[in-house]
TrEMBL record:
Molecular-function GO terms, alphabetical: peptidyl-prolyl cis-trans isomerase activity
InterPro entries cross-referenced by the UniProt entry: PPIase_dom_sf
UniProt keyword Cell inner membrane present: no
Record flagged with keyword Transcription: no
Disordered: annotated segments: 243-303
Species, as recorded: Psychroflexus torquis (strain ATCC 700755 / CIP 106069 / ACAM 623)
Biased segments, Acidic residues type: 247-277
Taxon lineage: Bacteria, Pseudomonadati, Bacteroidota, Flavobacteriia, Flavobacteriales
Record-given protein name: Peptidylprolyl isomerase
Length: 303
C-alpha cells in the first residue's frame, strides 16, 4: 500500500461519509484537531513509557533489521523504556495552525559525507508502518523502494531530513543491492493530525484518529525538480510552510513545483534562471524589485 498524503481540510467542521453507520447520508462531524492532538500525545507518550525496543535480524533483507517494540512486563520488567532512550528526539511540526510534537528515534543518522534529503525530495528506503495500539503492520517493504516525499504523509516526510543515506552500494550476483553499513536508521511516532486523521486508507486496519509508527532505513536521496524547470522543488515552497501544494504564484491552479511557468508571464521558468559554470542556481532580478524574474509577472514586460 503506497503512503498517501493527507488532505487535512476542515470545511465548516464537517465532511460527508459515503458509508455512515446509520446509512442516512448525514454529515460526519470531525473532531476538534487540538483535542485529537492532545489525546494522541497521551497515547504516544504512554507507549514510550511502557515499551522498550530491540533489534532482530531480518531474513528477508540483511540490511533491514527489524526494530521490535515490546511491553515492559514479566521477563522484560527491567528493560529501559523508550522515553529514556538516548536516541529519542522530538521536533515541532505545524499543520493548519496546530502545533504537533513529533517523537522519533535516531538510532543512526547516516553517512556524514552524504546529503540530507529535503521534505520535497525522493528517497530510497526500507520501512514498516504499524499501529501504535496493536503492532499490526499496515504497510512496509523489506526491499528498498523509492518514495516521492511530496506524496507521503506529513509525519513521514518531516522526519526524513534528520537522516542521511549510505556512502555507496554494491550489486550482488543475484541482482540484489547491498549498501554500506552506514545508512540512516530510525523510528517515528506520528500523531493522526499529521498522518491520516479521520480518513485512514481503506483496508489498512488503521482507525480514525489513530497515531501510527514507522521504522525507516534511508539508503539514498535525490534532490527533486518535479517540473524540470531548473528550480529544485523544495525551493518552490514560497510561503515556507514545508508544503508544496499551496504555492501557486500565478493563480492558475497549478502549484509552482509542477508549473513550468511559475509567474504566468509567458516566459518559461527555465528561461528566467541561470546556472553558472559550477552548476549553481542563480535567480536574476532584472528589474530590481526584489522578486526573482521567474516569479515576477512584470518581467520581462516592464524590464
Amino acid at each position: 500500500m503506497k503512503l498517501q498524503r493527507l488532505l487535512f481540510i476542515l470545511m465548516l467542521g464537517f465532511i460527508f461519509s459515503c458509508s455512515n453507520d446509520d446509512d442516512t447520508g448525514e454529515p460526519l462531524e470531525l473532531r476538534d484537531p487540538e483535542e485529537v492532538r492532545d489525546e494522541n500525545m497521551l497515547q504516544i507518550e504512554g507507549f514510550l513509557e511502557t515499551h522498550f525496543y530491540r533489534f532482530e535480524d531480518n531474513p528477508q533483507n540483511s540490511n533491514f533489521q527489524n526494530i521490535i517494540f515490546d511491553t515492559i512486563a514479566g521477563d522484560n520488567a527491567n528493560e529501559e523504556p523508550v522515553i529514556n532512550s538516548e536516541f529519542l528526539k522530538s521536533k515541532l511540526v505545524f499543520q493548519q495552525d496546530v502545533e504537533f510534537k513529533l517523537y522519533y528515534l535516531k538510532f543512526r543518522e547516516g553517512a556524514e559525507s552524504v546529503r540530507t534529503p529535503t521534505f520535497a525530495d525522493s528517497v530510497l528506503v526500507t520501512y514498516r508502518g504499524f499501529s501504535l495500539f496493536n503492532n499490526q503492520t499496515f504497510d512496509g517493504s523489506p526491499n528498498p523502494l523509492w518514495f516521492d516525499l511530496t506524496n507521503n504523509i506529513r509525519g513521514f516526510y518531516e522526519v526524513m531530513d534528520e537522516f542521511k543515506g549510505s556512502t555507496s552500494f554494491q550489486e550482488n550476483p543475484d541482482g540484489t543491492i547491498s549498501f554500506d553499513d552506514n545508512f540512516g536508521i530510525g523510528t517515528v511516532f506520528i500523531p493522526s493530525g499529521i498522518a491520516y486523521y479521520s480518513a485512514p486508507p481503506s483496508g489498512s486496519g488503521i482507525a480514525a484518529y489513530e497515531p501510527i509508527v514507522f521504522n525507516i532505513q534511508l539508503y539514498r536521496s535525490i534532490e527533486a525538480d518535479h517540473d524540470q524547470d531548473g528550480v529544485p522543488s523544495w525551493m518552490e515552497d514560497i510561503n515556507e510552510d514545508r508544503r508544496l501544494t499551496n504555492d501557486d504564484t500565478d493563480g492558475d491552479n497549478i502549484p509552482d513545483f509542477a508549473d513550468v511557468n511559475d509567474d504566468g508571464d509567458g516566459t518559461l521558468t527555465e528561461d528566467e534562471i541561470e546556472i553558472d559554470a559550477e552548476g549553481n542556481l542563480i535567480l536574476p532580478d532584472s528589474n530590481g524589485n526584489d522578486t526573482p524574474d521567474y516569479l515576477d509577472p512584470t518581467f520581462p514586460e516592464d524590464a
